[in-house]
Design goal:
This protein is 56% helix and 8% strand. It is elongated, with a radius of gyration of 36 Å. It holds the Pfam family DUF5682. InterPro entries: DUF5682, LolB. This is DUF5682 family protein.
């Protein structure tokens, strides 16, 4: 007769974990069956590897569609992990029992995780809540800590009593999907019983315990009916690093716990050292942030926590008592330092580790090798890395992070590099999350190395790009990620699309990313000759079609065209080549003098020409005067003015004629027209800094009072006195100074 003991536990409960260890020592089973998909059986041998450091998760994914994946996390204090390590240490067979992932993932397109005490389904109630309520607790977490986590006398008898309690709570409630899961678990138990095992230990969530004891088994035919004719999908399994933060239910993990860091401390620390050592860690954390935390305060907090537990009738000091004592003694009633303690200690910042022998896709292995060679350590906490692209090793780091971004493996997010105007600095915020393991597996469909996969992904996106702007962005990604083959694919697609492209605005939007690639390619050592050729073609074609594209625009189209023209102008200026600048300038001149072009575009083009020295100040004033004449509708005039005034405010400070024209136009407007103009003009001038607006106002007041004097001409300048200053500026700019 086979003896089957069902050890109902709370997932990730240190008290349950201790109890499981003692129960297994007492039972000495022939086989240990653990709640989890049978695909995890293949991972059991690696669980004994010392380089497999929890928290880790069994990751099961669909081979052909890796986004369909499920994590099964384990912490040091997880009862399932304790059972697994106990079995390996004693040479006992281990089997996982649950709904196979091959069926589960075939019928699911979302990331899943094993449940703790069950969630509410249909009219089911949470049994832990029911037991806590029956014991007079309004907090089921607190009841479980008192009844299980802090009990040190649990044994096989204790688990039998817990199973009976769960049976009374479950009653005849609906079980939905759990009924099928339990049927699969019973199939494994029956198979082990038939094989002649003498003692079988089953470690599962407490909710399932009553249904998995042989005394309550339903007929085999019922379980067979529940487990047959289910959809299947090809799956694979591996170990993946997990994090303490993702063990918490605040992260959305269905089987999470409130305080994984505290539970880890509770599990690994001797009973008589739990409280004092916890406060030592709290004090060390506070001191790390330059907050006072004396040894005397640690002693006093330890005493207060014990007193609070006694007053509240707790069997031992819990996290609530520790937190209250820390707030009263160590943080002087302040909650802000406690948030730091909560993040770093109560939840924790640990990230697990898997050995190199872990089965993984070739892409993941390549990424792991590069992480080690570049000394980019994966961490569960957010860290900012500054990179100097002039150094080969740091350039290689940048390239790796950009390639991962192409593959949608967002390990790093680019952030501001601080006070620098150079192009050789980058800053990345790095944070490794468990989901990235799935993203890496999914990206492996494109190639076996990070580089080959990124190039294949770029080539695919180039084929599917909706417009030229998308191709322009892909070229920039190729530059940053040093993807020569990908760059060739995108340039070829861009050349083909450009030849057939008749949308001038789309051509304009492509100029700036192409120009940045040409301008900054040398910094990364990328050959951009093909890109330069495409850029020349795009600029010439955009220049030829610019005037026609700017005609007959409504307000929204004009705003979009203005943005495109500004971007293209920045791109042409960035490269600064005659074969680009000349056709572009000629196109701007043509648009600038056409008075039938929408004011938002025409005004901006005239300002670009003025700033570039291609339009005389007097002619600019004349054009402004014509566009602000009484015969021009107020909104059209305001749009031209808005485009013209975008940029430096010094144009109005030192341009008396321009400021006078605008002043006269506003003063001469009718009351009705002025009401329409006010929000438009206000928006225009709101772009200037407050100091610039005050300077314009003062200048305008002086013009009206006649106190303003003309700006000095070069005839009044003392060039001899200015010579030393001019020479100093020239030296700073690296120019030769004539003696």
């Amino acid at each position: 007769m086979t003896q089957v003991e069902v050890l109902g536990v709370r997932h990730h409960g240190p008290g349950s974990a201790r109890s499981v260890g003692r129960a297994l020592d007492e039972l000495q089973p022939d086989v240990v069956i653990i709640e989890g998909p049978p695909e995890l059986d293949a991972l059991v041998p690696l669980a004994g590897d010392p380089d497999l450091v929890p928290p880790v998760a069994g990751l099961v994914y669909a081979v052909d569609e890796p986004r369909r994946a499920a994590f099964y996390p384990f912490a040091v204090f997880s009862p399932e992990w304790v059972a697994l390590r106990w079995a390996l240490a004693h040479g006992v067979d281990v089997r996982f029992a649950d709904l196979p992932a091959t069926h589960h993932l075939a019928d699911s397109d979302t990331e899943q995780a094993p449940e703790d005490t069950p969630r509410r389904v249909g009219r089911r109630v949470d049994p832990i809540t029911a037991l806590a309520s029956a014991a007079g607790y309004d907090d089921p977490e607190r009841w479980w800590e008192d009844a299980v986590e802090h009990r040190r006398t649990s044994s096989l008898t204790h688990f039998a009593h817990l199973r009976e309690a769960m049976h009374g709570v479950r009653g005849d409630l609906e079980v939905d999907d759990d009924d099928r899961r339990e049927a699969f678990m019973r199939k494994v138990i029956r198979a082990e019983m038939r094989s002649g095992r003498e003692r079988v230990a089953v470690v599962c969530g407490a909710y399932h315990a009553p249904a998995l004891h042989p005394d309550s088994f339903p007929p085999v035919s019922r379980d067979n009916a529940l487990t047959s004719k289910l959809p299947r999908i090809k799956v694979a399994a591996t170990w993946a690093p997990w994090s303490s933060e993702r063990l918490s239910y605040a992260s959305g993990y269905g089987a999470g716990v409130r305080s994984p860091g505290w539970y880890h401390h509770l599990f690994v620390t001797p009973d008589d050292e739990v409280v004092p050592s916890w406060f030592v860690r709290v004090a060390r954390t506070l001191r790390g942030e330059n907050l006072d935390a004396s040894t005397a305060s640690v002693v006093e907090a330890t005493r207060l926590a014990g007193a609070l537990a006694a007053v509240r009738g707790r069997p031992s000091v819990g996290l609530a008592e520790l937190t209250d004592a820390a707030r009263a003694v160590l943080t002087e009633g302040a909650d802000l330092p406690l948030r730091l303690v909560d993040r770093t200690l109560v939840i924790g910042e640990e990230l697990g580790r898997v050995p190199e022998s872990t089965p993984m896709v070739p892409l993941a292995a390549d990424l792991s090798r590069q992480q080690k060679s570049l000394r980019l350590k994966a961490s569960a906490t957010s860290t900012v890395v500054q990179l100097d692209l002039r150094r080969e090793s740091q350039l290689a780091r940048s390239v790796l992070l950009h390639r991962l971004a192409v593959l949608e493996v967002p390990w790093g997010t680019q952030v501001e590099a601080g006070r620098t105007t150079g192009t050789f600095k980058e800053a990345w915020e790095l944070e490794w999350t468990p989901e990235l393991a799935v993203a890496v597996i999914e990206a492996s469909l494109y190639g076996t190395t990070v580089r080959s996969a990124a190039e294949a992904r770029i080539a695919e996106e180039a084929r599917e790009a909706a417009d030229l702007a998308a191709l322009g962005r892909l070229i920039e990604e190729c530059l940053l990620a040093d993807l020569a083959e990908g760059l060739r694919s995108v340039v070829a697609a861009l050349a083909e699309r450009t030849a057939r492209q008749h949308d001038t605005r789309a051509l304009l939007e492509t100029v700036e990313p192409l120009a940045r690639t040409c301008r900054y390619g040398d910094v990364r050592g990328v050959d951009v000759a093909d890109v330069t050729h495409v850029l020349q073609t795009v600029v010439v074609r955009a220049s030829v079609g610019l005037r026609a594209a700017c005609s007959s625009l409504d307000d929204d189209s004009a705003a979009a065209m203005r943005t495109a023209v500004e971007a293209a102008h920045r791109g042409v200026a960035l490269v600064d080549r005659d074969d680009l600048r000349e056709p572009w300038t000629e196109a701007l001149v043509t648009v600038g003098r056409d008075e039938h072009i929408h004011g938002a575009v025409a005004g901006r083009v005239n300002r670009l020409l003025l700033d570039g020295g291609h339009l005389a100040h007097a002619e600019a004033a004349a054009r402004l005067s014509r566009r602000l004449s009484p015969g021009t509708p107020a909104p059209a005039a305001a749009a031209w003015l808005d485009g013209f005034l975008s940029g430096e405010a010094l144009l109005l400070v030192h341009g008396d004629d321009l400021l006078s024209i605008i002043d006269e136009w506003l003063v001469g407007a009718t009351e009705e027209a002025f009401e329409d103009l006010l929000p438009l003009v206000r928006r225009t001038f709101s772009r200037y800094q407050p100091a610039e607006r005050r300077l314009i106002g003062t200048h305008l007041r002086d013009l009206g009072s006649g106190r303003h004097t003309q700006s000095p001409t070069t005839d009044s300048l003392d060039l001899e006195r200015a010579a030393p200053a001019v020479a100093a500026v020239a030296r700073l700019l690296g120019m030769e100074v004539a003696s």
